Amino acid sequence: MSPDQIFVDRMLQLRKACGWTQTDLAKRMKQAGFPFHQQTVAKIENGERPVRLSESVALAGILGADLALMLGQSPSELDFVHYQARIAELEMRISSAQTALSGETPVPHLDGAS
């Protein structure tokens, strides 16, 4: 399996482990400054569209993983990563809420991993 296929496979596994739809992931990528839609996620998962390096870094962060995990660690470690993804999501929500309360323009939060 190529590194591209491994990355997409892990992306799909982690998205599902988080209980997110393709739309949920696309919204998070959009919040991070990427022009993603549900169709973008679907095309990536179906192998119809490659993932750019900057997108892969953002996706890994949003999913609570790092690139090493996305490219090779065993699926048995995905339970731990699931909790990291939840923590990353909560950190993003806290950051967005703090920004909204302060009246400032939101700043993309890409450091969702540890």
Based on the model shown, name its key terms:
mainly alpha, 434 Repressor (Amino-terminal Domain), 6 helices, globular
What does this structure look like?
The chain is mainly alpha-helical and 114 residues long. It has one domain: Orthogonal Bundle (434 Repressor (Amino-terminal Domain)), CATH 1.10.260. Helix content is 64%, strand content 0%. The protein has six helices and no strands. It has helices at residues 3-17, 22-31, 38-45, 53-62, 67-71, 78-102. α2 crosses α3 (38-45). The radius of gyration is 14 Å and the shape is globular. The model has no long low-confidence stretch (mean pLDDT 85).
Describe what is shown at a glance.
With 114 residues, this protein is mostly helical. It has helices at residues 3-17, 22-31, 38-45, 53-62, 67-71, 78-102.
Number of domains: 1
- How many helices? 6
Q: What summary fits the major beta sheet? A: none
Tell me the fraction of residues in β-strands, as a range.
Answer: under 5%
Give the distance, in angstroms, between the N- and C-terminal Cα atoms: 28 Å
Topology:
Elements: H1 3-17, H2 22-31, H3 38-45, H4 53-62, H5 67-71, H6 78-102
